[in-house]
Specification:
Blueprint: H1 2-6, H2 12-24
Length: about 60
Amino acid sequence: MGTTQLGEALKEEEVDLIVAFLNSLTGKVPEVAYPLLPAETGGTPRPVWIKEGSRGSIGR
């Protein structure tokens, strides 16, 4: 993961420190309640960056 995200290999000591930190975390992860959105219809407005026949900025 370090190589992928940082572009360099982590030393074993660094990995051990990260693991120790993550194991020290306590508490509960808060529950997230996502809203139920209505179903999309033909009249649903499209996001501004999506235009007919265009992929916008996604997938370039």
